[in-house]
Amino acid sequence: MSDEHLDSAILVTLQEVMETEYPVLLDTFLLDSQERVLSLRRALASGDSEALRCAAHSFKGSCSNLGAVRLAELCFALEEMARDGRLEGAAGCVEGIEREFAIVGILFRAERQRFA
Amino acid sequence: MNTHYGLTILVAEDSPVDRMLLSTIVSRQGHRVLTAANGLEAVALFEQERPQLVLMDALMPVMDGFEAARAIKAMAGDELVPIIFLTSLSENEALVRCLEAGGDDFIAKPYNPIVLQAKIKALHRLRRLQATVLEQRDLIARRNQQLLDEQRAAKAIFDKVAHAGGLDIPNVRYRQSPRALFNGDLLLAAQAPAGQMFVLLGDFTGHGLPAAIGAMPLAETFYGMTAKGHASGDILRELNGKLKQILPVEMFCCVALLDIDFHRRVLRVWNGGLPDGYLIRADGSRIALRSRHLPLGVLAPAKFDGHCETYPLQDGDRLLLLSDGVVESRNARDELFGEQRLLEVLERSAPEQLFDRIEQALAAFHGQAQDDLSLVEVTIGEPPPRATPSLAAPFEPRALDWVAEFELRADSLRTANPLPLILQVLLQTQPLRPRAGAIYTVLAELYSNALEHGVLALDSAIKRDATGFAQYYELRRQRLADLRHGHIRLRLQVHGDEAGGCLRIGIRDSGAGFDVVRVLAEDYRPAGLGGRGLRLVRQLSDSLEHDGADGLIVEFRWGARA
Predict the structure, then answer these.
(1) Domain span at B206
(2) Contact A66, B17 (CB under 8 A)
């Protein structure tokens, strides 16, 4: 597993805390994150910087909890842009988040297989 | 990871992943978890389940964490319900908003179970501390209320004992704070059967209930003994003995007692430990009524000296007593009011304005009314209206045909006052009770006449001026102390039937005798101090005559009872 995308120490802690619920947590993240990415897109399309900031902030929180460090960093960058109203770079940032989420998704599904 | 204490913890978080993770961590640590997906749900759950701690996300849909935190803190009231905000620590502005909404702590994502456990534990400890403080605060409040209730009850009882109508006399003016009882101040006034008035100002050492407790027996003894016609020396001795017996060693009572005889215009005063009182003449001149004794409750009965100083009184004289709260009161700058200020007021003021001036001076000194001082003023003029005798002997018909004779010899004359006892005997006769005051006054007159002019051979002519007056009473004290021979014979005869009856008092002494006829025939001298006694006897009784064998004979007669 690449530490560039996922923080393995956090994942170890999550396994300890969640025990048998660990795969459910991963599933929940994957499902919820699709929603979050969609709401990022919607906020970007409507040019609503406050909605974009909130969506990025919220997504950032669960990403960091699940150890998806790169994804959390991208969300933080987007949150900052939205807060400052710099929407010109935001579209590129959202695309970056979608790409990273695809990678994290593959890694988590692999992780999930190990506990199936 | 289980802990021995289990709390109910509310987790309010809109992200399902974070919510799931947090609830799992918290429940694995042994707590019961309630979850809410937004602020509104959180507030509703709090109201319903009253969790002891809240983990709150700041940004949530429907109602955000700040608003929910405020609502929860308001519902919790005095109880501490710690709220831990779930937020990244990177934004100061958001942290400030969390604190303003009542947040007690923060935790950042990613959640660290160890840090979270430590925070929950610390806040739980704080919770228990707060609960203990609240319990103790409530306990103190209850105890304080109880104390106030007890004080109120004690004061209510005391007011019944202490204000048995004694102070509602037109020529008495006083100022006493409602809290005076609990400052140890005590003001009592009573009219004796013979028409004298007793005014007692007392100041117990200490404050609060202990100071008030000694006041009860003091007041009861005072009223009991004045009503029975005891003399001031005997009253003081009894008060001292009683207080000595019941008060702890460190407690005593500073007292000034005024014994004012309006008929004979004589003041007897005893001051033990109170500041100077004053006799203020109509022309403004002053006599200080100094403390010459130890307070009551200090000396053993054998060592107690109840000797009073005696002063002649005139219309318009004023008597002023004050508690040490007056001279010892302090203002906001911690300055003492002091005796000097009081003396200046006394110097500057006309006698009739004195009372108001002292009050004004104290008010000006403090800038507000003081509640720890007592002040009383008695104006000498017409005798105050006589209070109804409160000697409630049970009503029983008595045999109305008896004679009693007393012979009081030197030892008795020196040490005892037979009049209260004699009055008690006479008041067993129902028809005499309405005239108790007059009978007592007459007995007192006859007795002191026989004692002073008969047995002690004192000449009332000495009493023509103030110096002579003091000399007279000093001479009386000396001769009485040296008395070895002599006697007074009292004969009481009561005879009555349904048609009416008569009390006949005969008095004779071992002295050389005096010309009653001449004394009675003399012109009335309003300014003089002698001769007035027998005239008073004649006015108050139904007949006064002189019989060579029996001495003076006085009669009180009554008609058929309705």
Answers:
(1) 163-379
(2) yes
